[in-house]
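Quick log. Single chain, no ligands specified.
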Amino acid sequence: MDAFFAAIEERENSSLCGLPIVVGADPRDGKGRGVVSTANYKAREYGIHSALPISKAWRLSEAARKSGQSPATFLPVRMERYAEVSTHVMETLRRFIFLVEQASIDEAYFDLSSCESYTFAEEICRKIKAAIREEERLTASVGIGPNKLIAKIASGMHKPDGLTVVREADAAVFLAPLPVRTIPGIGPKTEAELTKIGVKTIKDMRRFSLEELRAMFGKRGLDFHDKMHGRDETPVEENYETKSIGEQETFEQDTGDSQFLVGRLQALCQDVMHRVAAEGFTHFHRAVLTVRFADFETHSRSHTLASPICDPKVLEEEATKLFVPFLDQRENPHGKLIRLLGVRVEKLERFGVHAQAPLIESG
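-> predicted structure:
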């Protein structure tokens, strides 16, 4: 889906049409401490994008305003509403396709191998895009390829409202000029290492043999070698176990106030359980806590339950037990103030059966 959260907000408030929209934390006139969840394409022209600190997004918006452009409209996240719309979109997909793997709230893979031709596959995808546009008044971008890797990369090539087809014979040429960061698993740190040796594109990276990549990156090098040549054997799977839904909060001020922190932790647990219900899940099997200190040192702790649970109170209890050691010497020996708390549930189930994961790609 294209800029999914922001597109829903624009759809449901006609006064926002054509304006730059940022969905995320409250910017508080540049003093906010959260991040951008989604920015629409007009806001992206200002340099605003997902995961950008909300304070920086506000400054970019102000710079645009001072140059005579429209400032961004900042809106809070309404996850329950987005999850509801996501359900409708996935239902639309399943009217056309038998095998759909939802990757996140706004992204899915689907298997069109039965079409036996790229031409027929493209025809079906155009029908899917038209149905989503007509029923939801939203746009989606689609990539068609010989495997999940190529299809995913292709889906991002001509946003918004794009449809990109990459046949198997063209995959190597398609990948060659793309930045190395396009390869899943290559993040900023690995990209910086490669830049130092003159590697900026996938074509540049192909000059290294399998053994050279293994020597540089260990087992990851083997994976990079396959992906830079467009190889991916990962199947499209309707059901698999790894799932998670989480919420986090960056506080206005770093704090060590235990009463405040436990209160916010409980509120996060409630928000998570609202999303669990909104996305059609009934049970979770693992609770995960994230704590970020004022110096950005970040820790995660988890607990797997003996059996799947659906009680919000249990999540609060488990999260609190995981958190309490961060209030004393056990996990916080230097008495650091806390900047962020996060709560996540994993191994989600629907009606007692392991549910398919929500498939997400940044819109």
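DSSP finds 13 helices and 13 strands in the chain.
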